[in-house]
Amino acid sequence: MKSCDPAGAAARPLVSLGAGLFALLAVLSFAAAPALADGDAEAGRKVFSQCIACHRAEEGKNLIGPSLFGVHGRPAASVEGFSYSPALKNSKLTWDDASLDKYLENPTAVIRGGRMAFPGVKDPKARADVIAYLKTLHK
Ligand code: HEC
User: Fold this and answer.
1) Using a 6 Å cutoff on CB, does residue 118 contact ligand 1?
2) Do 38 and 129 meet the contact criterion of CB atoms below 8 Å apart?
3) What is the rounded distance in angstroms from the CA atom of residue 98 to the CA atom of residue 104?
4) Which residue from 76, 86, 92, 111 has the least number of CB within 10 angstroms?
């Protein structure tokens, strides 16, 4: 094996530059894609003002709606002591980014017979933000 290969040595930095640019472009195009997970929790805290007529962020505080503490990642209709609609109880949903996004866009259309009397958050960015905020409500 030749220990010194001038052509190969010259080509190597170019190759790694190319790989670096590729990685950079991949990161940039990922950041530009409107991903659901890109919500801003701080902005979402303000969107949550639309929810506080019926919901609290604190654990165990149920009002007209159940406490939303820890809601992200838990099965639908699983807060002890809250009287859910049969429709939500039977939904077999687990609250993740996708199911929350659909539900919050139009609650009564997604859960027919559900009791969340709320027209929904129509702006996708505001929904992503409020979902990001809900994710912060964990121990
Ligand atoms: C007018 C009252 C009201 C408003 C406003 C409201 N909700 Fe609800 N929400 C409810 C009720 C009642 C339920 C239970 C629905 C059922 O049993 O079908 C519920 C259920 C939910 C659930 C499912 C909880 C679980 O434990 O499965 C989520 C998530 C939710 N609401 C999020 C929100 C968010 C986020 C907002 C604000 C953007 C909001 N809600 C606004 C009344 C409301």
Assistant:
1) yes
2) no
3) 10
4) 92
Rounded CA separation 20/43 (Å): 33
* Among 81, 56, 84, 54, residue whose Cα is nearest residue 71: 56
For ligand 1, is residue 95 a contact (CB within 6 Å)?
yes
Domains and CATH numbers, the chain: 38-134 (1.10.760.10)
pTM higher than 0.70, yes or no? Answer: yes
76 lines ligand 1 (CB under 6 A): yes
What single letter denotes the amino acid at residue 71?
A: V
- Axis-axis angle for helices 97-105, 124-135 (nearest 10): 130
